[in-house]
């Protein structure tokens, strides 16, 4: 009996030691995050709203394609059945997700030079120039990613529709929701979609701003994809009235430099371009066409995120060159700053990505709810002072007893792991953090913004 009591005592003491140690660690981590020590109470950021509806909440409930679009997609797949469609859909999904950017010619040349030096170091005197060239080419083929341009014919367009239309729609809806929530008075009249594919952007824009949009310009180099998008608009047939009025299809971007659109979108299309030079040219053109917002989306991978950061920097650094529209550009979302991305400058670079839940098109193999993981950047013309400069939550929020873990991208360009407690940071911020999610803004002022405010 005495032994059992002693054992229980030791176990309870050990549990207490672990618990107190964990609490001390949490407080230590919390103390290392001075950037989240003050809520912007001066502006009464909550107003009369409950914490679960604080102004940084940007969550979008699980989305679903419009019924008419889902029905049209099902009709088209029944009209032209694809052999082993489920396998083809999965193969295309995997291929698009794992795709890397094409290797640039300068990088390829440098790799060839390095391989040649390495081969010569270990070669004997019998190695001829012809054999050396062959060895270098062989090594390059084995170590270089072979990027290939996808040619969307009628069959591949249908597979893409079945594989990607619903997930792409979900990501676009999340981007539009960000603008609509933060600037509810914004009522765009014109939209251009570069790399429009199946037309998901048009449907998402119509669902968001259908009462004000009067012109949608869909640009895609694939005639088969444009034809498919038009059929989807007409309920799965080649005749009939389109569900969304004012939609125009083109294979090339508008030529006139004076033509601008309130919203310009490129969703999962920049990664389809064959080189950095092509991407640079297209991004510059899209920005010139932008009157208010330029929305760029890609897969939530390192390659997709890096591509978007290159596009972001290109617009921000080249803003003085846009003669027809000299208004400066700034990052509306997700970054609360125009500084280098802390995810890319970290010792182990990570992709800045977000997730949106959605209901897939109910094909026989496709009935469970899913999540679309994507990266985005929304660039806007105007002044960044009008935008929220609150920290962005960049990873899933971890809720623990009496404390919350939040990974934040802050207005000073730094990434922070904040451990927020009611005792240290105040009841309001703690409760706001507990109800916030990945992708939301946390209504807090950091030391840098406090200094800026006091100095102004």
What do you see in this structure?
The protein has 456 residues and is α/β, with parallel strands linked by helices. The chain has three domains: 30-56 and 389-455, no CATH class; 63-95 and 149-386, Rossmann fold, CATH 3.40.50; 105-143. Helices cover 43% and strands 17% of the residues. The chain is built from 14 helices and 15 strands. The chain has helices at 2-31, 67-79, 85-98, 105-122, 129-143, 154-182, 200-209, 223-233, 276-288, 302-317, 342-345, 422-425, 427-435, 447-455, and strands at 38-39, 63-64, 190-194, 215-219, 247-250, 261-267, 290-299, 329-333, 354-359, 370-381, 392-393, 398-400, 403-409, 415-420, 444-445. The radius of gyration is 26 Å and the shape is globular. The N and C termini lie far apart (72 Å).
What descriptive keywords fit this protein?
456 residues; alpha/beta; Rossmann fold; 3 domains; nine-stranded mixed beta sheet; four-stranded antiparallel beta sheet; 15 strands; globular; disordered N terminus
Write the layout of secondary structure elements.
Elements: H1 2-31, E1 38-39, E2 63-64, H2 67-79, H3 85-98, H4 105-122, H5 129-143, H6 154-182, E3 190-194, H7 200-209, E4 215-219, H8 223-233, E5 247-250, E6 261-267, H9 276-288, E7 290-299, H10 302-317, E8 329-333, H11 342-345, E9 354-359, E10 370-381, E11 392-393, E12 398-400, E13 403-409, E14 415-420, H12 422-425, H13 427-435, E15 444-445, H14 447-455
Parallel strand pairs: 2-9, 3-4, 3-6, 4-5, 6-7
Antiparallel strand pairs: 1-15, 7-10, 8-10, 9-10, 11-13, 12-13, 13-14
Helix pairs in contact: 3-6, 4-5, 6-7
């Amino acid at each position: 009996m005495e032994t059992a009591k002693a054992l229980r005592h030791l176990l309870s003491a050990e549990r207490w030691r672990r618990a107190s140690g964990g609490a001390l660690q949490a407080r230590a981590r919390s103390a290392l995050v001075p950037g989240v020590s003050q809520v912007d109470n001066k502006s009464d950021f909550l107003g009369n709203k409950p914490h679960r509806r604080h102004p940084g909440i940007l969550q979008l409930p699980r989305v679903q394609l419009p019924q008419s679009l889902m029905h049209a997609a099902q009709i088209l797949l029944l009209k032209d059945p694809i052999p082993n469609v489920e396998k083809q859909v999965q193969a295309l999904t995997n291929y698009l997700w794992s795709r890397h950017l094409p290797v640039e010619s300068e990088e390829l040349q440098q790799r060839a030079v390095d391989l040649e030096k390495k081969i010569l170091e270990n070669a004997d005197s019998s190695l001829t120039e012809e054999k050396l060239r062959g060895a270098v080419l062989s090594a390059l083929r084995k170590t270089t990613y072979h990027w290939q341009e996808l040619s969307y014919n009628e069959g591949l367009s249908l597979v893409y529709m079945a594989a990607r239309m619903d997930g792409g729609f979900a990501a676009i809806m999340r981007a539009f929701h960000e603008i609509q929530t933060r600037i509810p008075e914004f009522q765009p009249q014109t939209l251009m979609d570069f790399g429009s594919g199946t037309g998901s952007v048009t449907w998402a824009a119509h669902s968001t701003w259908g009462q004000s949009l009067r012109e949608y310009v869909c640009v895609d180099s694939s005639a088969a994809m444009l034809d498919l998008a038009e059929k989807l608009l007409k309920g799965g047939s080649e005749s009939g009235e389109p569900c969304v009025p004012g939609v125009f299809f083109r294979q090339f971007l508008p030529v006139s430099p004076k033509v601008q659109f309130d919203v310009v979108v490129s969703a999962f299309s920049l990664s389809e371009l064959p080189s950095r030079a092509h991407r640079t040219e297209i991004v510059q053109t899209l920005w010139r066409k932008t009157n208010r917002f330029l929305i760029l989306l890609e897969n939530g991978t390192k390659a997709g995120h890096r591509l978007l950061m290159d596009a972001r920097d290109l617009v921000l650094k080249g803003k003085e060159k846009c003669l027809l529209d000299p208004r400066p550009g700034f990052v509306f979302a997700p970054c609360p700053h125009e500084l280098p991305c802390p995810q890319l400058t970290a010792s182990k670079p990570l992709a800045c990505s977000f997730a949106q839940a959605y209901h897939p098109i109910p094909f026989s193999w496709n009935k469970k709810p899913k999540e679309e993981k994507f990266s985005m950047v929304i660039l806007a013309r105007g002044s960044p002072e009008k935008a929220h400069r609150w920290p962005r939550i960049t990873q899933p929020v971890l809720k623990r007893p009496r404390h919350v873990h939040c990974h934040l991208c802050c207005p000073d360009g730094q990434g922070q792991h904040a451990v927020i407690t009611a005792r240290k940071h105040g009841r309001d911020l703690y409760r706001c953090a507990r109800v916030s999610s990945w992708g939301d803004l946390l209504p807090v002022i950091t030391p840098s913004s406090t200094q800026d405010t006091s100095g102004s």
